[in-house]
């Protein structure tokens, strides 16, 4: 969808256009209700502002939609399709990397009680593993901050793609 189409579409269609980027209703409504935007950069600035900060409840809600890193997103939704495309850019993984990701994901979930979330776009599997290992040393408070930042990065990349 072009920015012009997004600006001109009805509210419900605009909401459904934004939702795959990040399914947080307040965030979606702030972006949609801020229309019209003069440029994609203006829309991205509005999305960034609406995402800062996310509440803990919003982060929890968003995490419930994300697959584990290294696992293929299930379903036919636009969000699942975006996730599969983002993770496809990571390239092929060896059995060793798959095993390390599985171990790291399990340790992370045990430590923090949630799925490990990271912006996959533009990263390699070794970089993601390194980040996973680094973040396992975070305090729960520091990790909440990092997760919210990763959600923002993912959402902004997706909004940019949707409106381009």
TrEMBL record:
Domain of life the protein comes from: Bacteria
UniProt keyword annotations, A-Z: Decarboxylase, Lyase, Purine metabolism
Listed name of the protein: 2-oxo-4-hydroxy-4-carboxy-5-ureidoimidazoline decarboxylase
Cross-referenced Pfam families: OHCU_decarbox
Coiled-coil annotated spans: none
Chain residue ranges for the region called Disordered: 67-96
Catalysed reactions, as listed in the record: 5-hydroxy-2-oxo-4-ureido-2,5-dihydro-1H-imidazole-5-carboxylate + H(+) = (S)-allantoin + CO2
Biased composition (Basic and acidic residues): 68-84
Transmembrane segments: none
Pathway info: Purine metabolism; urate degradation; (S)-allantoin from urate: step 3/3
EC number(s) on file: 4.1.1.97
Domain Oxo-4-hydroxy-4-carboxy-5-ureidoimidazoline decarboxylase: 7-160
Molecular functions per Gene Ontology: 2-oxo-4-hydroxy-4-carboxy-5-ureidoimidazoline decarboxylase activity
